[in-house]
């Protein structure tokens, strides 16, 4: 009888010891799992790309060289491969907004033009075309571009009511198209697809 009691007590001690070991293992696993969850929660989601979100007023100014006169007429749409001619027309339109300073034209340092092209198109070493359209002439001498424009009426459509949409580093700016007096909506849209790139908004595609 005494031996039976000893055996029972021994089994109880062993069982209790096994249970304590098992509980310790489970507890350690839970602590490790909790630490991993905290570490994961501190990580930024892989697909999250935080940028400063500009409003429509900013993009209306940023894109104005594309929206009127030869900017709207001579810069290709529905392509992601802008040619030198497209870029030349954009640069011409951009500086045309600045004004005229000499002999009906405008002079700009080549380095400033290169910086402008990189800002909008993420391209380097673009050589502007001499005659990108029938009303614009671009000449280059030393390190200076000179732009000359013939007087021409602006009969292109107008664009307004812009809507800006962000998706990670991609931005779309969608305009409603109006007749040249800005009074009648045509039922069409002009959409700019942009990509944020180190402080710049590169123009990827103009859809319309």
Helical stretch tally: 6
- Number of strand elements: 7
CA distance, first residue to last residue? 98 Å
Measured by DSSP, the beta-strand proportion falls in 25-35%
Task: Tell me the series of helices and strands, N- to C-terminal.
Answer: HHHHHEHEEEEEE
Please give the order of strands in the largest beta sheet: 4-5-6-7
Rg over C-alpha atoms, rounded to the nearest angstrom? 33 Å
Helical fraction: 40-55%
- Summarize the biggest pleated sheet: 4 strands, antiparallel
Shape descriptor: globular
Mean pLDDT: 79
Structural class: alpha+beta
Low-confidence stretches: 19-23, 38-47
Question: Concise description?
Answer:
The protein has 208 residues and is of the alpha+beta class.
